[in-house]
Amino acid sequence: MRQIPLSGRRHAPALAILAVLSLGSALAGCLFGPLRLDPATVLHVVWARLSGDAADPALSTIVVDIRLARSCLAWLTGAALAVAGAVFQGILRNPLADPFTIGVSTGAAFGASLAIAAGAAGLGGALGMGLLPVAAMAGALAALAAVLLLGRAGGRLRRETVVLAGIVVATFLSALISLLKSLDEESLSSIVFWVMGSFQGRTWTHATFLLPYLLAGLAAVVLYSRELDILSLGDDQARMVGVDADRARLVLLVAASLITGAAVSVAGVIGFVGLVAPHLVRLVVGAEHRPLLAYAGLVGGAALVWSDVLARVLLPEGQELPVGVITALAGGPFFCLLLRRKARGEEP
Amino acid sequence: MIRLENLACGHGRTEVLRGVNLSVARGEVCGLLGPNGAGKSTLLKTLAGLLPVRAGSVRIAGQDPAALSARERARLAASVPQRAEVPFPLTCLTVALMGRYAHLSPLGNYGPADREAALDAMRATGCAHLADRPADAVSGGELQRVLIARALAQDADVLLLDEPAASLDLAATTALFDLLRARAARGAVLCAVHDLNLAALYCDRLVFLKDGTVAAEGPTDAVFTEDVLGRVYGVPLRVGPHPAPETGGAPQAHFVPATPRRRA
C-alpha cells in the first residue's frame, strides 16, 4: 500500500522549516555574480539598508538593488507559477496541466510580443513599466477565455476537452508569435529573449508590480482551496456535495490566470516550475490543496531562485542564459523521473 | 418524500426518460431496477440536480431541487455515484469530509465536529481504518465505502444511490443495506440495484425502468412477479419465496437458463 509521508499530519513545523530554507535561498542568491561576496558582507549590507545606516553605496546598490531585487523577483515568480500550476492541475484533474498546458502562459507571451511588435512596450502604463505587463495579462485572460469557450463547445466543460483546447490555443498563439518575429526583425531579439524567460536587469519595480496580483490571486485560491479539493474529483461529485462548481472553477481559473499573467509579464515564459513543484510536493504531503499550495509556493520560489543563480554563473565572463533554458533542462529529466516513479508505484 | 410527476429528462440533446411518475413515502427504501441503459443513473442524476428537468416536476420533501442552490440541495439529498475517479492522493478522510461541505459557513473550515461526523460515517460503513490512506490507491470496494460514508456525513434526509453494492463483497453489501433500512426511518432512500433478489429483500417499493419510461411500479410484493420481471428483462424467470422465515417469504427470482448444464 502506497503511503504519503506527510499526508494528514500537522504541517506547521514542516512548513516553518521550509519557509526559512526557501526565503533563505532568496538571500543566498545574492552571493553569486561577477563580484564574489561572502555571506557576512551580504547580511551586513542588507541589514545596513534596512536599518537606514550609511553603507558603501556601490556595494549597497549591487547587493540590494540588483541582486536581492532579482533574487526576490525570481522567488515570487517561482512561487506564483507553482501555485498557478497546482490550481490548474487540481481543476483540470490532470497532473500534467500547468500554465502552459492550458495556454495561459503562451497567451501572456503573445500579448507581450504584440505590444513589442507594435512598439507599444515603451509607452507609459502601469507603474512606469510600459504597456508590456498590461498586454501580457490581457493575453493570459484572453487565452483562458478562448480555451474555456473551445472546451465548452460540446456543451459542458470537460477536463479532456479543456486540455486539448489549451494545446490548440497554445499552438496557434506560438505560430502567431513566430509570425510576429519574422515580420519584425528589429524586435526579434527582444521577443526571443522575453519568450525564453529571464530576470536580467529586473528591479524592485517588477517585484512590486507582481506582488499585489500574486497576493490577490493567492487570497482567492486559498479561500477556495476546499472547493479545489472537491473539484479535483470532478464536476458531478462537486455538485453532489453542494459546490457551485461553475462559479468555484471560474474564480479559481481567473485567479490562477492573473497570477500566471503577472508572473509572465515580469519574467517572460518560464516552464516546468509550475509543473514539477506541485507534482513533487504532492508525492510528499498528499493532494489536500491548502497545505499543497503552501508547500508548492515555497518549493517553486526556491527552485527558481537557484535556477536563476545557475543561469547567471554557468557561462563565463558574465554572459547569461535565459532562466527558462535552465528550468527546462533541469525540469524535463526530473519530470521523467517522477513519471517513472509514479508508473512503478501504480503497478502492484 | 420524493414525488415525480410526468418527468422527462436526459443529457445533451438526447431524451432518456419521459413520463416518469413515482412517489416514495417517508421511511421507505425504494429500489430502482431495469436493464442496462434503462435510465436508472439518468433519473438519479436528475434528482440530484446534475441533469436538467426537461418536463414535468420533481419534488423532494416538497421542494423543487432546481430552485435551490447547490448547497441547499446537498443538505436535502445526498448522492452516492456509481463510480468515482480520484486522480490525486487525497486521503479517504478528506473525501468523507467533503460530505460536510454543505454544512459549512461560506468561509468556514471543517471543525472537530465535522471530522467526528465524517469518522462516524466511516465507522458505519466499515472504512474508518482507511482514514489516512490515499483514496487513489485503495480498492474499488474500499473507495465505494468511503463515498457512502461521505453521503452519510452529508446528513440529508434523502439518500440517492447508484448501484452502491456493485463493487462490494457480500458482507459489505448486506451491512450496507441494513444501514440503508435504518437510514430510511428519517427520510427516504432511492437506490438503483443490479441484483433483483437483493432489491426484493430490502426494498419496500420497486420501480422498473425500461425503454425510457416506467414499466412497472409499486410495493415489492405486488410488482416482483414472473410476469413483470419477464416483461422488463426479456428472459424467463421463476419467482418463489425466500426459504428463511425471517424474510417473511420475500419473493426471490431464479432465472431459467436456455441451455442448463447436465446433472447426474
Key attributes of the depicted protein:
heterodimer; A: about 350 residues; mainly alpha; about 0% strand; B: about 260 residues; alpha/beta; Rossmann fold; 6-stranded mixed β-sheet; 3-stranded antiparallel β-sheet
Question: Could you explain the architecture of this structure?
Answer:
The complex is a heterodimer of chains A (348) and B (264). Chain A is mostly helical. Chain A has a single domain, classed as Orthogonal Bundle (ABC transporter involved in vitamin B12 uptake, BtuC), CATH 1.10.3470.10. Chain A is built from 14 helices and no strands. In chain A, α2 (39-51) packs across α3 (57-92). Chain A is globular. The termini of chain A are close together. In chain B, strands 5-6-7-3-8-9 form a 6-stranded mixed beta sheet, with helices on both faces. Chain B has 264 residues and is an alpha/beta fold. Chain B is built from 9 helices and 11 strands. In chain B, a hairpin with a 2-residue loop joins β8 and β9. The mean pLDDT of chain B is 93. Chain B folds into 2 domains: 1-61 and 157-237, Rossmann fold; 85-155, no CATH class. Helices cover 31% and strands 27% of the residues of chain B. Chain B has helices at residues 40-47, 70-76, 92-97, 112-124, 140-153, 170-184, 196-202, 220-223, 226-233, and strands spanning 2-11, 14-24, 29-33, 53-60, 77-80, 158-162, 188-192, 205-210, 213-219, 237-241, 251-255. At the A-B interface, α9 and α10 of A face α2 and α3 of B.
The averaged pLDDT of chain A comes out at 85
Number of helices of chain A: 14
Q: What is the strand content of chain B?
A: 25-35%
As a whole number of angstroms, the C-alpha radius of gyration of chain B is 19 Å
Multimeric organization? heterodimer
Per the CATH scheme, the topology name of chain A is ABC transporter involved in vitamin B12 uptake, BtuC
Shape of chain B: globular
Per the CATH scheme, the topology name of the largest domain in chain B is Rossmann fold
How far apart the termini of chain A lie comes to 9 Å
| DSSP strand content of chain A | under 5%
Largest interface: A-B, 31 and 41 residues
- Series of secondary-structure elements of chain B, N-terminal to C-terminal: EEEHEHEHHHEHEHEEHHEE
Order of helices and strands of chain A: HHHHHHHHHHHHHH
CATH architecture call of the largest domain in chain B: 3-Layer(aba) Sandwich
For this structure, what is the CATH class of chain A?
Mainly Alpha
**What's the CATH H-level superfamily name of the largest domain in chain B?**
P-loop containing nucleotide triphosphate hydrolases
Q: Low-confidence parts of chain B lasting 5 or more residues at pLDDT below 50?
A: none
Total beta strand runs of chain B = 11
The portion of residues assigned to helices of chain A is: over 70%
